[in-house]
Amino acid sequence: QVHLAESGGGLVQPGGSLRLSCSASGSSETIYAMGWFRQVPGKQRELVAALTTRDDRHFGDFVKGRFTIDRANAKNVVTLQMSSLRPEDTAIYYCWGSNSGSYFWGASYDYWGQGTRVNVSS
Q1: Quick one: 31 exposed, middle or buried, by C-beta within 10 A (0-12, 13-18, 19+)?
Q2: Would you say residue 23 has pLDDT above 90?
Q3: Which backbone phi and psi does 56 adopt, to 5 degrees?
Q4: Are 35 and 20 in contact (CB under 8 A)?
């Protein structure tokens, strides 16, 4: 019933920037947190950034100030601004939403977008 649609992936050079956007539709009124996970083939998916309805922000340790997450004009739209991108940031980035607290974030029963590729390469 909840649909997440992300956009903004692509090819970017190291040190460059990229902005991703995700929009939630359907029965999204119960969503507590939205954000992004990423996954590299052969590795576990990992939290990139999360934004709760309390406006609390959580970031993966690898971000170290390089990424920001914000709401757009509509509360069901979030954007991820990625700067100082590195080749190791190359991954599939999935928009994500959860009705639960942080302990359960990333579960298969959460809401997931289709994913968008981010390729950081010269």
Answers
A1: buried
A2: yes
A3: -80, 140
A4: no
